[in-house]
Amino acid sequence: MAFNINNKIRLFITVEQRLYRDAVLLDLVHQKDIDIVGESSEGAETLRLLNYFTPSTLIIEENLKDMDGLTIAETALLKHPSLTIILLVDTEINQNRLAIYLDAGIKSVIAKTQSLKDLNKAVNYTRNGQIYVDVAQSSPLQTSQNQHPHICANFNATNFYSLSEREQEVAKFIANHVPLKNIAEELGLSHKTIHTYKERILIKLGIERIPELVIYMKRLHFYRAQEAEYS
User: Fold this and answer.
1) pLDDT for 84 beyond 50
2) What's the sign of the alpha-carbon dihedral 215, 62, 125, 56?
3) What are 144-163's pLDDT values in tens digits?
4) Topology of the domain comprising 157-230
5) Taking a C-beta distance cutoff of 8 angstroms, is the pair 37, 163 a contact?
6) Helix axis angle, 43-53 relative to 210-230, nearest 10°?
7) Where are the domains of the chain?
8) Burial 150-180 (b: 16+ CB within 10 A, else e)
9) Taking Cα atoms as reference points, which of 74, 78, 80 lies closest to residue 106?
10) What CATH topology corresponds to 5-133?
């Protein structure tokens, strides 16, 4: 059965620490029913971009430099009442604090000490408005440089234009999770040729793996959308 694109979770993530955010993105980007539509490190910017990217789910950190997660959630839900909000907290919270979060309309509270599997479960569990809370877990999230390297830490949109037109076309297919075999059939090329294109793309963009390419292309789309908004 073909997957209905209209059922996809449109996900926006706001996490200040780039390494942690990259770890979350690398874990979620594999899921075909999740479309990562944007990211930010600031609360105020998030509130502004919600109108533009219209996500269905917002993952947001409790403690940001400019604003706290509870305030962002309450403000966002006033304009976007159907938005599903998952709050990432630094430490375990007491029942009184948890009740405040849930009363504000937050659908899930996940401790950052929990595993990515728990966060993944929360994203899928809350897609229909259900509440998912499990802050008592303590499986450490491993975000070492070796396990979750920065994805294009010095993101440069102009690198994409160093690719040939065909390479750009192949990169877009890969970013949409199209298998290399299917790309070859679509473009009328051999599988070996498409594999060569893939290797060239990774080298030119300075990345190593397909998931990192997918995130790069998501960020490129995000960058272009912001440019369009300001122009």
Assistant:
1) yes
2) negative
3) 444 444 444 456 778 888 88
4) Arc Repressor Mutant, subunit A (1.10.10)
5) no
6) 90
7) 5-133, 157-230
8) ebbeeeeeebbeebeeebbebbebbbeeeeb
9) 74
10) Rossmann fold (3.40.50)
